[in-house]
Amino acid sequence: MPVGSNLPLKSIILRYPPCTIEEPEESYQLLELPPEIIKAVEASKGEEKENIFPLTIKGKPSDDAVLCTPNSTFQLRTVGISNSILVCRSPSSSSTKEGRKDTLQIRDTCHEILECVAISPNLERIRTILKDSAWKGINSSTNNNLGKRKRADKEKKVKKWTKDQLSSVIQCSEEELEKGLKERNVIEVNGKMLLLPSKELKELLSIVLSLLTIHSLDPTKSNTALSQPILEALQDDHEVDPSITTEVLTLFGELVKEDEKEEEMWKADVKRIIREIGKGLLVGVKDKKLDEFEDEWRNEVGEEWGDEIDIRLLEGEYLLTPKPLTTSTTFSSSSSLISHFPISSLPLQPSERFSDLFITRPKWRPEEIIPFLKGLTRDGDVKSRDKLVQKFVRVVKEKDGSMWWFPRRSS
């Protein structure tokens, strides 16, 4: 592989460079790019600097390095090759007497290459990093002065991260990072990233949903209201900083202003708000009657939105188990027990993830376990997910036609 040289049509002469103190030995690492990256890089040739397709290698010293494009993440894996690859370049005029154009110097011999393997990024590191500096809730500023001083002293010692700092340690593309921040309810306040924990966020969103109903502009479009009355009510009655409320409204909807004279309106994503309220109520729940939990959830969102309650909105956050039968009860969905079982608590490595799942339950129905496989492969990559299932799962079909997944025993 010549470096900075065009090969002649007929033949070339290969030479090793002279061993001199002035010219140290060179070492190269070859990277094999997949077709999708090569295509994107070639398409960006000749474009303006800001439009060049970027490739970034990320990782802490303790991490396995990954290669990130604007929208994908690839693990870098060393692969040995049977045929050595020579890295060559034209010799300098001072190092060869012939000065022939068909002579190349061997600068390095490579016996391995770096291979790119598409992976799902470890976005849970976002929550781990921001956990200590997370938002304390709507009542965090109403404690006594002594409590405020203690809390202020403690917060000074906690590192607060900017988006750029977070991006430097989260091994993912910019597009995946944006999605990961939104899914974990992370907002940017005064230049710092702020995690909104489910339990504290639930209290805020319950109030926001009530204010949305009160200030709705049109009964036929009850998900739209003026933003200013909501911001003022949360600041005056609950001491929530408008900078936080504005980001929350943006996270769970869209702030729009048709022209400069019009007041700003908020178009709420009601389904997502209801889901997050349900997640907050679910925190810490263990073996609670499903119908009781749904009633509590319905009361929390209010009569206006009660019909939107659907346990399927919380997939990947809970487990359902049948309530023990008695002589006076029969099994139904209303007699199920619900427990908090968040996917965020499961390992990222496939072998460990499946092990934990089968420790929790010795067998699973496919539709129950699949939500807990998210994050093991890239979103939408069903083929890769099915390969993992084939590796770690034994499928059994019962006489009644039902399918069950059991752990595959290693030989």
Automatic annotation (TrEMBL):
InterPro entries: ARM-type_fold, Dcc1. The keyword Nucleotide-binding does not apply. Keywords: DNA replication. It comes from the Eukaryota. One of its GO terms (biological process) is DNA replication. The keyword Metal-binding does not apply. Pfam families: Dcc1 (PF09724). One of its GO terms (cellular component) is Ctf18 RFC-like complex. Belongs to the DCC1 family. PANTHER family: SISTER CHROMATID COHESION PROTEIN DCC1, SISTER CHROMATID COHESION PROTEIN DCC1-RELATED. This is Sister chromatid cohesion protein DCC1.
